[in-house]
């Protein structure tokens, strides 16, 4: 479902002075791989509802009635290998391997009007244009490219809810701006449900678009304002079969008609331009109404000063990124701050400036006392992104938890979000990991709402018997292999989530709930085969499935992984897992094998979402289920191996280089892993108020916390060779532990690592 090979990796270059806050100067793209591209190079502000970015093709989700594998390369719309751009749309997903969005595509053209996008091999047959990376610039909150076939310079920036375009045209009596209301990512013939456009005057139009897809019932409202009046406009409706058209045929709706509706519409707006004349567009989005989209536009961008909007957006990025200031080699700085940039893209604001948003019930709600968010890729982000927010973005994460609980209140199924997406749940991936995010926020003192009501929502979700085998899990302690293709991974993930519920119940003195869910959290043992030493699918009769290959990713009961990686998925009770696998020495040896085995090419032939670039030995860093595993040596007598493997992963899987990341960023999870591990610690068990120590990659770091305090990290003698920790001090005193507490960070202390070239055994 989620591809794991990144094609596009944004790099942020920083210039550090004496001041605490230092401006981000440049963002630039780096060439990626041939197969897929799942991040986008466009303009957005931190957690912005608008992600304004180029699209490089119009690949259909289906071909001849079947899934088209080529579409996998376009999860975020932009692919670096492509040589043409078809336009610039306003909504995207960052680093996912499934997709949606790509709403409201705009393309400037000049000369003969063409309303079809054309083809990559013959772009002049349509409105697309060739471009060169030599004439392309990507910075935080800014994107620029020269459209070679049109001789038009395209620039864009954004606020939270408004995208701003600036197009520099040549002299022409035939300059056009096309608004393609059919375009989308993972598009197919009947994806558009309905589109409505109203031309208010010669500089302003409003409307909305309804579509189905990953978000089954998605409606996005828009307002589009031009800095210059168009002298004529028109549309073409590409819907060939419409059973009933009413009596609108009395009008010529194709040209200069102010009210347009249909499923497949492309519009154009005509201008006469002087040489180097700039036409600007403000494009506002709203989940609620046309009135709200206009209010969003009026409040966020009052005039037409493009450079001012860009500067304000980049200042906002600079403020956010300076929440952590590091000292490190330049390549580490580039990786670190690019990772921070990625972690602050999602989740996205899903609230208008007046506090209104569309709920899961498709009704209009008011977010009282919080900002409502969408885009929760929770199977990925509960692991490190939300724990990272609990340190560096606590107020936002508090709002995110409140958004999840609002989702629960509006859910007809009375469930917390699995994958929250534009007033929908797309139900992607396994587990019910919002309970992890909620528990972690409450345990660490972040959540300010009613914790008892939050616990009720967690329990209700975990007892939803007809969802993904939960009924079997409750009755048998595991999910039979005959009932689910991902029976093992679901059982393991439910067991961890249940442990989280138990910790929340314990904090709230709910003894019965604690006992019930603590017992459920031991269910992982039911899929552990003591004979083979692996997690395996179990049949309804209680026997293990005979056909078993621990290296295979298909038909073995796992999602996006194999038994070699998932057999270590007991983050809530590593000590018990160590005992099950034969004790500390045997467990460490098992980890050694994982990191050193050699996988044949046949392993990759059967999987679309795991690629060799994201693997070290048999450890799949490009997929999330094993992200905690390198830290498991801390539960053996060989913690120095955690230090060596963490540094190995940091250096091999994250590079300011053509292939950038060893896997999809998955809405910030891959990047959050990098940030934590570079600082020298990691949340192995979200819901537990401690972090496992590793090997810091930075020379020093200062975390400027929201409570006004700062947490400092220093690595003495840190280098590429000195990866082993010799001793650790906390506020100058020896830390005789492999863990630090969350309060050690939030109280504002100093963690000092002394590094060396050999393990300290």
Let me know the largest β-sheet. 9 strands, antiparallel
Shape, per Cα inertia axes: globular
Q: Indicate the proportion of strand residues.
A: 15-25%
Helix content range of the residues, please?
A: 10-25%
| CATH level 1 name of the domain at 9-272 and 280-319 | Mainly Beta
Termini distance? 42 Å
Model regions low in confidence, pLDDT < 50 over at least 5 residues? 1-23, 25-37
- Please tell me the CATH architecture of the domain at 9-272 and 280-319 by its name: Distorted Sandwich
Q: If strands are numbered along the chain, what order do they take across the biggest sheet? A: 10-11-12-13-21-17-16-15-19
Query: Count the helices. How many?
Result: 18
In the CATH hierarchy, the third-tier topology of the domain at 9-272 and 280-319 is known as: Beta-galactosidase, Chain A, domain 5
């Amino acid at each position: 479902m989620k591809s794991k090979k990144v094609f596009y990796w944004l790099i942020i270059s920083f210039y550090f002075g004496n001041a605490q806050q230092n401006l981000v100067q440049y963002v630039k793209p780096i060439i990626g791989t041939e197969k897929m591209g799942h991040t986008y190079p466009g303009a957005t502000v931190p957690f912005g509802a608008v992600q304004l970015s180029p699209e490089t093709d119009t690949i259909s989700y289906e071909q001849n009635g079947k899934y088209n594998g080529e579409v996998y390369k376009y999860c975020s719309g932009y692919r670096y290998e492509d040589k043409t751009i078809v336009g610039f749309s306003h909504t995207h997903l960052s680093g996912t391997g499934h997709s949606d969005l790509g709403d409201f595509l705009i393309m400037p053209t000049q000369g003969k009007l063409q309303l079809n996008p054309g083809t990559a091999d013959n772009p002049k047959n349509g409105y697309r244009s060739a471009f060169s990376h030599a004439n392309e610039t990507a910075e935080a909150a800014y994107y620029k490219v020269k459209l070679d076939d049109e001789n038009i310079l395209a620039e864009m920036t954004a606020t939270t809810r408004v995208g701003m375009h600036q197009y520099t045209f040549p002299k022409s009596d035939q300059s056009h701006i096309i608004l393609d209301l059919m375009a989308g990512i993972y598009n197919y013939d009947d994806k558009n449900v309905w589109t409505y456009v109203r031309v208010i005057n010669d500089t302003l139009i409003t409307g909305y678009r309804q579509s189905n897809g990953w978000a089954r019932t998605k409606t996005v409202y828009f307002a589009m304002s031009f800095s210059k009046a168009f002298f004529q406009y028109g549309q073409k409706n590409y819907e060939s079969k419409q059973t009933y058209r009413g009596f609108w045929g009395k009008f010529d709706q194709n040209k200069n008609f102010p009210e347009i509706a249909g499923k497949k519409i492309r519009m154009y707006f005509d201008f006469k331009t002087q040489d180097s004349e700039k036409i600007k567009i403000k494009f506002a989005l709203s989940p609620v109404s046309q009135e709200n989209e206009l209010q969003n536009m009026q409040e966020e961008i009052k005039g037409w000063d493009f450079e001012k909007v860009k500067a304000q957006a980049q200042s906002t990025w600079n403020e956010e990124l300076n929440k952590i200031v590091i000292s490190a080699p330049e390549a580490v700085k580039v990786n670190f701050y690019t990772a921070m940039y990625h972690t602050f893209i999602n989740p996205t604001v899903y609230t208008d400036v007046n506090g209104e948003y569309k709920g899961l019930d498709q009704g209009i709600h008011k977010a009282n006392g919080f900002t409502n968010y969408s885009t929760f890729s929770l199977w990925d982000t509960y692991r490190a992104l939300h724990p990272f927010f609990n340190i560096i973005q606590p107020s936002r994460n508090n709002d995110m938890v409140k958004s999840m609980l609002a989702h629960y209140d509006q859910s007809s199924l009375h469930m917390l979000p699995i994958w929250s997406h534009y007033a929908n749940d797309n139900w992607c991936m396994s587990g019910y990991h919002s309970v992890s995010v909620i528990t972690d926020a409450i345990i660490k003192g972040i959540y300010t709402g009613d914790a008892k009501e939050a616990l009720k929502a967690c329990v209700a979700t975990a007892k939803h018997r007809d969802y993904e085998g939960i009924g079997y899990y409750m009755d048998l302690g595991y999910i039979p292999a005959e009932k689910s293709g991902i029976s093992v991974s679901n059982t393991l993930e439910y067991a961890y989530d249940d442990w989280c519920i138990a910790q929340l119940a314990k904090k709230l003195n709910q003894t019965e709930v604690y006992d019930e869910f603590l017992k459920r959290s031991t269910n992982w043992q039911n899929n552990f085969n003591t004979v083979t030493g692996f997690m395996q699918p179990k049949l309804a009769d209680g026997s293990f499935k005979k056909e078993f290959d621990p290296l295979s990713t298909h038909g073995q009961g796992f999602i996006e992984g194999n038994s070699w990686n998932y057999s270590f998925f007991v983050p809530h009770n590593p000590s018990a897992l160590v005992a099950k696998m034969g004790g500390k020495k045997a467990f460490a040896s098992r980890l050694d094998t994982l990191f050193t085995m050699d996988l044949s090419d046949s392993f990759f032939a059967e999987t679309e979402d795991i690629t060799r670039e994201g693997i070290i030995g048999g450890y799949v860093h490009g997929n999330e289920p094993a992200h905690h595993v390198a830290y498991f040596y801390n539960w053996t007598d060989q913690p120095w191996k955690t230090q060596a493997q963490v540094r190995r992963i940091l250096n091999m899987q994250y590079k300011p280089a053509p292939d950038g990341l060893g896997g999809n960023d998955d809405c910030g999870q891959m990047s959050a892993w990098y940030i934590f591990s570079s600082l020298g610690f990691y949340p192995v068990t979200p819901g537990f108020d401690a972090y496992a120590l590793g090997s810091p990659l930075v020379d020093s770091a200062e975390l400027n916390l929201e409570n006004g305090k700062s947490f400092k990290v220093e690595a003495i003698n840190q280098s590429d060779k000195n990866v082993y920790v010799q001793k650790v001090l906390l506020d100058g005193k020896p830390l005789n532990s492999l863990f630090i507490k969350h309060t050690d960070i939030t109280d504002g202390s100093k963690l000092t690592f002394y590094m060396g070239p050999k393990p300290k055994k």
